[in-house]
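Researcher: Sequence of Winged helix-turn-helix domain-containing protein follows. Predict its structure.
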Amino acid sequence: MTKGSIGLNAGAICNILSDGQYWSFEALRAKSALSEADLWSAIGWLARENKIEIDNSNSHPSFRPGTNFNY
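Model: Prediction complete. Tokens:
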């Protein structure tokens, strides 16, 4: 795993999130075909840039575009 691959994976997750809906981790993983580690790295990258919103209100987090999302 490199910074470049994490960035590419983050871009792929942005493309999935562009529908504006909440996505579960499992659904993102299935749609992106990323490993668990690669997906968490991409989510971390997007979280750092405020491009992803993480909802922890129930037992499993869900994700949707954040405040700096611009895709």
